[in-house]
Amino acid sequence: MHIDARTLDNGSLIEGDLCIIGTGAAGLSIALEWVAAGRKVILLEAGGFDPEARMQALYRGASLDRPYYPLQAARLHYFGGTTGHWAGYCSPFDPIDFVKRDWVPHSGWPITRADLDVYYARANKLLELGPYGMYNPSNWEGLDPEVKRLPLDGQIFYPKMWQFSPPTRMGTMYRDQVVKSDNVHLYTYAKVVEVVPNRDLNAIEGLRVKTIDGKEHQVRARQYVVACGSIHSARLLLASNSRAPNGVGNQNDNVGRFFQEHFEIMTAQLTFEKPPAAKMYTISTIGEIRARAEMALSGDVQTKHRILNGTASFRPGVITGTEQSRFATFSPDAVANVEARRKAAREKGKGGAAAQVAPAGPSLSYVSSTRQEQTPNPESRIVLDAEKDELGMPLANLRWKFTKLDKRSIRVFYELLGQELGRAGLGRVQVMDWLLDGNDESWPSILAAGWHHMGTLRMAENPKDGVVDANCKVHGLSNLYVAGDPVFSTSGAPNPTLTVVAVALRLSDHLKNKVLV
Ligand SMILES: Cc1cc2nc3c(=O)[nH]c(=O)nc-3n(C[C@H](O)[C@H](O)[C@H](O)COP(=O)(O)OP(=O)(O)OC[C@H]3O[C@@H](n4cnc5c(N)ncnc54)[C@H](O)[C@@H]3O)c2cc1C
User: Fold this and answer.
1) How far is the CA of 289 from the centre of ligand 1 (A)?
2) For ligand 1, mutation pick of 82, 163, 357, 457 (most atoms within 8 Å of CB)
3) Which CATH superfamily is domain 2-129+169-261+377-402+453-515 in?
4) pTM, whole model, 2 decimals?
5) From the CA of 75, how far away is ligand 1's center (Å)?
6) Confidence at residue 335, expressed as pLDDT on a 0 to 100 scale
7) Which residues, 6 or more positions from 451, have their beta carbon under 8 angstroms from its beta carbon?
């Protein structure tokens, strides 16, 4: 069922069993699980069914410490959320990503990769990916004799497989299922501006919701799930300070901290002795499934060298020195630009994400780029601004901070890659100047990131270390949960959406089987 909140009488009361705030990858994945589940579900979306400049302006914010994408364009504020914009690159996190590593401060999730395997398989279906088993490189090698890994020491480097979603625009793909459901009540133009706790600050009493045309409504439910992405979930909890002066769930000053992104940066020139068999590392297609590998370091080698998890992609080409950061070229109206580029690529018959990867050729020269996790860092954070948006919510600003380990890990990765390519007689690695000096902690202007926002309401067993517990419930509040990338304790190397959906499905099962039984 769909209701436009602007059409309700001012001051309406909306009541239900479960209230989900946000309809992006996380919120919609949960809502779909409750279609026909016999409970009244209230699904709140701030925007409508299409992107609107006035809604995007509510996402305005500044990057206070270093360049980043314009925040108002880095997330979408309408039904389907940022899946209206994503590129579809998917791969599961590795077992080591969930483990406490004594060389990575604040690492370790209270759940393991094994806890997510069943949900990864379900997430693959929602995102229109192939079977979960197809992340195993051996399964690809078995299907196509030309797809084979480079002959490197498998104890050190292995091919980490990615699959490519079409990319699924969840708001388009799943709109009918939601709107036709009798028990899921979708309210568009329903922006939650405050999560209101009771006077004892141990449960949520209700929500204040505003529409863009100035109406205000109330929502009451038995259980609440915040699914607004890392920046805007943290913003909402911090801004909910009428009863809890530091914000809801923020008794230990963790809300908004530990913001993490993925470093994505051109790093090295690879020169091969003879053209490598690179098909596995570009795009291969088996039936409807599209995949490719990136070079990854084994967990044992990461442990030995005390570095972060990362991967390297490579494509035929030569570093020209004229490369620019995507931060510099991604404009505030990039929402429209990116869609136009993708549409053009699709029309050429090449297909969304795959179109961005150059085909394998007989080249000897390849350009390699890093994709790496970031050290969880409490100083890397979302902070509220004194300025408010049109609905009276303080704007959210980004303080994105790095550590020495972040850069050292990239350097060590490429040292090992150079040694291994040399040992195997395949070729050599020439790292870019910005990585040469081990004492230089600066970052070059070509630095970019994946548009991945993680960690601001992190999962931790102990409330002192994080905001939610292993079931995604906010510590100290009996009926408030968080879904999506905010709960990531660490950021892994792969893009996050597959894990966002897997973690959300796990939360949905918990609510169904243990809470709203
Ligand atoms: C250009 C680009 C490319 C990307 N490519 C990839 C990729 O290849 N692979 C990958 O894994 N990831 C990619 N991502 C990241 C991906 O889009 C996110 O991981 C994913 O969308 C996160 O889902 P979410 O539900 O947590 O947040 P979102 O999708 O941002 O959804 C949040 C929802 O909450 C709503 N909302 C926010 N605040 C409120 C409020 N107060 N009240 C009511 N509703 C509210 C929003 O309108 C939205 O519907 C990309 C992102 C961008 C921008």
Assistant:
1) 24
2) 82
3) FAD/NAD(P)-binding domain (3.50.50.60)
4) 0.95
5) 6
6) 63
7) 69, 74, 82, 86
